[in-house]
Write a structure and sequence with these properties.
There is one protein chain. By secondary structure, the protein is of the alpha/beta class. It folds into two domains: about 190 residues, Rossmann fold; about 100 residues, GMP Synthetase, Chain A, domain 3 (2-Layer Sandwich), CATH 3.30.300. Helices cover about 45% and strands about 20% of the residues. The protein has twelve helices and nine strands. Strands 3-2-1-4-5 form a five-stranded parallel beta sheet, sandwiched between helices. β6 and β7 form a beta hairpin. The chain starts with a helix and ends in a 13-residue tail after the last strand. The protein binds xanthosine-5'-monophosphate. Xanthosine-5'-monophosphate (XMP) binds next to loops. This is GMP synthase [glutamine-hydrolyzing]. Pathway: Purine metabolism; GMP biosynthesis; GMP from XMP (L-Gln route): step 1/1. GO terms for molecular function: ATP binding; GMP synthase activity. Keywords: ATP-binding, Glutamine amidotransferase, GMP biosynthesis, Ligase, Nucleotide-binding, Purine biosynthesis. Homodimer.
Length: about 325
């Protein structure tokens, strides 16, 4: 019988056998998969797991600090690296979505490798690969492989010449969550929506700047907090805000404004391959719209995306 407790016992034993007294390096993203994988590896080998968490400048508001704090509470040996300036510098003047993805993927690998080189004798690379990732990378003709370069931390293994440690390779997402709960990982991390590797960079249409990131972080924070407060967060598969490259006229007091528009996105889905727009209550949308327009200077209009996938995608880029 598969139970999370049995899985943990067996996996920790296997990891001990595989790794012995050697060292593992691993990139953590704040997501469920990498966190659960790292916690299992840590249980097996303790501080010989070296976790790296990179602030790429396109995380959510306060995410870097909060996630690092959680990792420390979990006892993980983790190093946070603030690489924001590097990412902003290279993203400048690059409005194309695929170019943005490639820049972020490349810089991430550079930062990670630089850290790996500071450590000696690292034999293993830990990864939070789950079963659907394995399937997806096998079916090269799958939609995500042909339409977008979904990199996550893909590309790392080939460049690092290390042996892989992938304790979640045969699990589905719901099983990963069960294991995570059994390991005592806080609920707010376990039930998180998926968040793309290129982060807010693909939710800012066109060129990414530090100023636009700051605007979008505020709007996104209001939206996500409201979803949680209204018990709607768990009813949707994924939600986020998109900053449109459009300014329009508004009014504040007796002055005209000319500011950005954000789109709210929320979808229901089973696996992200197809998705339906979530029928969030009008009252809820009204509250979020007011809160964003009243509190985020630079945004004067909020719209709700009512497109399904296909033909639209979940992200706008
Ligand atoms: P789309 O927009 O293709 O998104 O309907 C499907 C799922 O994939 C996520 N996504 C990405 N994840 N790197 C990632 O790690 C990417 O470049 C990327 N693009 C989309 C998206 O958030 C959704 O969950």
């Amino acid at each position: 019988d598969w139970t999370p407790a049995h899985f943990i016992t067996d996996t920790v034993a296997q990891l001990k056998a595989q790794i012995g007294d050697r060292k593992v390096i691993m990139a953590l993203s704040g997501g469920v998969d990498s966190t659960v994988a790292a916690t299992l590896i840590h249980k097996a080998i303790g501080d010989r797991l070296y976790g790296i968490f990179v602030d790429n400048g396109v995380l959510r508001k306060g995410e870097f600090e909060q996630v690092l704090e959680t990792y420390k509470l979990l006892g993980l040996n983790i190093k946070g690296i603030d690489a924001k300036a590097l990412f902003y510098k290279e993203l400048k003047d690059n409005p194309d979505p695929e170019t943005k993805r490639k820049i972020i993927g490349r810089l991430f690998i550079e930062v990670f490798q630089e850290e790996a080189h500071k450590l000696t004798d690292i034999k293993f690379l830990g990864q939070g690969t789950i079963y659907p990732d394995v399937i997806e990378s096998v079916s090269v003709h799958g939609p995500s492989a042909t339409i977008k370069s979904h990199h996550n931390v893909g590309g790392l293994p080939e460049k690092m010449h290390m042996e892989l440690v992938e304790p979640l390779r045969f699990l589905f997402k719901d099983e990963v969550r069960k294991v995570g709960r059994e390991l005592g990982i806080p609920a707010n991390l376990i039930d998180r929506h998926p968040f793309p590797g290129p982060g807010l960079a693909i939710r800012i249409l066109g060129e990414v700047t530090e100023e636009k990131v700051a605007l979008l972080q505020e709007a996104d924070d209001i939206y996500i907090k409201a979803l949680r407060e209204h018990d709607l967060y768990a009813t949707v598969w994924q939600a986020g805000t998109i900053l449109l490259p459009v300014k329009s006229v508004g009014v504040m007091g007796d002055e005209r404004t000319y500011e950005y528009t954000v789109a709210l996105r929320a979808v229901t889905s089973v696996d992200g391959m197809t998705a339906d727009w979530a029928h969030l209550p009008y009252e809820f949308l009204a509250t979020v719209s007011n809160e964003i327009c009243n509190n985020v200077r630079g945004i004067n209009r909020v719209v709700y995306d009512i497109s399904s996938k296909p033909p639209a995608t979940i992200e706008w880029e």
